[in-house]
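#lab-general

N.A. 3:47 PM
ok so I finally got the sequence cleaned up, no stray characters, all 499 residues accounted for. can someone with queue access submit it? mine expired

B.Y. 3:52 PM
send it over

N.A. 3:53 PM
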Amino acid sequence: MLRDRQITIFDTTLRDGEQTPGVSLTPQQKIDIAYQLDKLGVDIIEAGFPIASEGDRESVRSIAAAGLPSTMVCGLARVLSKDIDTCIDVGVDMVHTFVSTSDIQRIHTIKKSREEVLDMAVNAVDQIKDSGIKCMFSAMDATRTDLDYLIQIFKAVEDAKCDIINVPDTVGVMAPSGMYNLIKNINDEINIPIDTHCHNDFGLAVANSLMAVEAGASQAQVTINGLGERAGNADLAETVMSLQSIYGARTNINTEYIVETARLVERYTGIAIPAHTPVVGENAFAHESGIHTHGVLEKSDTFEPGIMTPEMVGHTRRIVLGKHAGKHAIRKSLESANLEPTDEQLNLIIERVKEIADKGKKMTDADLYAIAFAVMGKPQGKPVIDLKEVSVMTGNITTPTAVVKAIVDGEERVASDVGIGPVDAALNAVYEISGKHTGIKIHDFRIEAVTGGSDAVAEVIIGVQDERGRMVTARAANADIVLASVEALVTSINMLLQT
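B.Y. 4:20 PM
back already:
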């Protein structure tokens, strides 16, 4: 089967991923993502579609010239000489050329006969190979293409010395069993490596990619966070971790950077990662149920896969406080803050936690500690950071800049910083004034509720983490979202520094 088989990972975040509706990356962001993908260990980066625009052409050129130490750079081209010449001109290591092969696309889009499409495919491969670089050929809409014709065209490009063929499920209509059978049939006829590119229209992109590999494919095309046209592509994190942890296959992915990479792409694209997303979501290793948290705190793989841990992907296990939280979890959370209530006090703390949760409120660590301090009759202590003033300058011709004044350990400090928006600038300024010297970093930022109207009140929850992996979350609500964000961050830092 797949145990110990080496599977190549082809990432198309910068090409198909950028085709996600509403996503547009700057040249610098593309370079940043390319470096991150190289750090992650991706084998091939599809850097873009150079013929599409001058911007895309220069971005691909820059990535190809970046000298990424472990990653091959690929450019996309139709089976047209001008597309291929442009890819070659920008210096890519591989050209990925494609043409529609299904009757529905061939007849209604490119309006070519089967014979014409076959000739165009072979000519494109010849042109690429004559240039001395690698070639991948895609039969676009392969899963809706007549099988005999599909194999005929794959054999023709193989004879033309194509290096690898790609089998795309372009509109995401394949069932996993069907994908297995298709790849097996192709693999029985073709001697060069097979790649697969699966779309997620029915939520089956990862399953179809895994079935393709089971049937003999040696390469999978993926994107970070499953980005891409319509419902997106096969997600890198889910595909890689399934291959490695469930199947026992090998990849070159440095899995400890998976979450870091997902969050970088989330920040640059503005497409938020849903909390329940496998592997990288905020709740991927979070537990609230009393039974679950008790088990996980005793032995993590009682209610986690075991073959995939949060540490493996650069994530952190979280115990979430709420109406389902048990005594064991709440005691552990309090002990981490050096709070040791009696059994009677603990029962009262749990009762108050559940009362708040029953009202639909999400509990933060700061909420829990405040309840515990009140029940135990303990003073909360003087905050390490006493916020005094926040000011922000922004506009259409001004880089958002924030200035924060605070008393830190009894000393007045002022810090300023910039950001991609006023909130980002303000949080960076707080981080400047406190986080850098304490090793504290923001790991979570969420706007939980916004009331209606022009005077809407925003509720912000922010989580921070220190060098030892300890995490604390806090909330704040304010009509000024910048101030709410700063207050939540300062509260969470104070709670962490005080415990």
